[in-house]
């Protein structure tokens, strides 16, 4: 298992300040177990971004984010929401 940790809120907001719309991707494996990218955390991030005046076009919690082909298949179901986003915010490990 890979250990993940939440980014500093102020640092994150600084990094995304030039973007208005986002698609969120979490992971049901390591990030979920660490409390950094599962369903509750993706929902909380959506609420946080919207409170900052940002738009969340959609989001998923991938079955296993590091399984690229599986995640790609999951994302195809959300093509319209992805196309509407200026940026993708991934809440998982770097794999």
H-E order: HEHHEHHE
Q: What general form does the structure show?
A: globular
Number of strands: 3
Helical residue percent?
Answer: 40-55%
Rounded Rg: 13 Å
Low-confidence stretches: none
Mean pLDDT: 86
- Determine the N-to-C terminus distance: 11 Å
- How is the biggest beta sheet arranged? 3 strands, parallel
SS-based structural class? Answer: alpha/beta
What order do the strands of the largest sheet run in, or round the barrel if closed? 2-1-3
DSSP summary: helix tally: 5
Strand content: 15-25%
Structure characterization notes:
The chain is globular and about 30 Å long. The protein has five helices and three strands; from the N terminus they run αβααβααβ. The N and C termini lie close together (11 Å). The model has no long low-confidence stretch (mean pLDDT 86). It is α/β, with parallel strands linked by helices and 95 residues long.
Key descriptive features of the protein:
5 helices, about 100 residues, alpha/beta
Which helices and strands appear, and what pairs or packs with what?
Layout: H1 9-15, E1 21-27, H2 30-34, H3 39-51, E2 55-62, H4 68-76, H5 79-84, E3 87-91
Parallel strand pairs: 1-2, 1-3
């Amino acid at each position: 298992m890979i250990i993940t940790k939440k980014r500093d809120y102020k640092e994150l907001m600084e990094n995304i300040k030039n973007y208005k719309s986002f698609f969120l991707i979490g992971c049901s494996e390591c990030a979920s177990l660490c409390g950094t990218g599962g369903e509750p955390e993706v929902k909380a991030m959506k609420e946080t971004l919207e409170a900052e005046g940002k738009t969340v076009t959609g989001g998923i919690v991938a079955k296993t984010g590091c399984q690229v082909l599986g995640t790609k298949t999951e994302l195809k179901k959300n093509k319209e929401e992805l196309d509407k986003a200026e940026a993708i915010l991934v809440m998982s490990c770097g794999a």
